[in-house]
């Protein structure tokens, strides 16, 4: 253990509570004993710990699964610690090889700048912007220069680098590995040295890079950071991780009504997992709510509370209330207040063509499939005839539970 941690600080109830917050929903905390002492030291000295999250602005599809690690940052921020949101504008020029079987193409400075703005906008919906330190790793990486880069590279061996799974697998498969890819984990680790980080967060796929930070801090005579990895959030289906390709995601820019309804669509079992990883309620509050449900309270009540919390975070309390009312209206067979209006010509028009032209179905064949499944209504009446033709007039057309349009046909 580092000399700075040899001095034992008293572990109080407050320290243990902070440890519980840290461990909530996490995959792994390395090493736990060091983090407990860092928390105790912070409490005894009144000096906040420095907590780092580094993100390369590679423009992922932004959904609530991406915010799991940001939620953890916010929990630690609320304990009074200093959160550092690090944008990897320099490391993006290298390209992160983590989990890849080929070289990642580097981004241009223009792409990096545009994507960094998107990332920070995302982070600001979860973190407290007034208490968040925004840094760019080009600040210290560029001044390092070629001599500094060579000195940094001397602090780690090729043998250790090749222990990393993706490098190991690519080497044995005969897949090319460029020398510059070895620089990525070194530069990410050097970020921790530059920022004097006490804790670094990341996904499970970043473990090698996070441990590099500990190694390099020790090499530079610093107290090594602890590392915290967070799990991947299961999507709406409760089976696969949330992803756009699986269509089991909630985008953080989705409109409030859709966001609210999607949260309500998850299973009662998955709801508690989402509470742990996404809610800002304390675990004591969540456990109390769980006991109420086990005691007979309708689980839908708990799910509505979660849906309103998430919708409020990415929109507003008023939008969450309106989304709840919209959901109630739809569940009663009512029509939402605000639905798109579409003007079409060609009356009389077949129902399949109408659904496609109104944007309610991607194709006529898909429209026919929806009709066969009883999922299409015109003016609240279920359509069962695929050959139905509508004359000129105005109709409220509904597909499934959530898609509506007021169609004026001429």
Précis, in short:
The protein has 16 helices and 13 strands. By secondary structure, the chain is α/β, with parallel strands linked by helices.
CATH class of the largest domain: Alpha Beta
- Based on secondary structure, the structural category is alpha/beta
Largest sheet: 6 strands, mixed
Low-confidence stretches: none
What's the architecture of the largest domain, going by CATH? 3-Layer(aba) Sandwich
What helical percentage do the residues reach? 40-55%
The spatial strand order of the largest sheet comes to 1-6-5-2-3-4
The count of β-strands is 13
Order of helices and strands: HEHEHEHEHHHHEHEHHHHHEEHHEEEEE
Give the end-to-end Cα distance, rounded to a whole number of Å. Answer: 79 Å
Give the overall shape, derived from the CA principal axes: globular
Q: From the alpha carbons, calculate the radius of gyration and give it in angstroms.
A: 26 Å
Number of domains: 3
Q: What percentage of the residues does DSSP assign to strands (E)?
A: 5-15%
Number of helices: 16
CATH topology of the largest domain: Rossmann fold
Tell me the CATH superfamily of the largest domain.
HUPs
Compute the average pLDDT: 86
Subunit structure: Homodimer.
Subcellular location: Cytoplasm
Keywords: Aminoacyl-tRNA synthetase, ATP-binding, Cytoplasm, Ligase, Nucleotide-binding, Protein biosynthesis, RNA-binding
Family: Belongs to the class-I aminoacyl-tRNA synthetase family. TyrS type 2 subfamily.
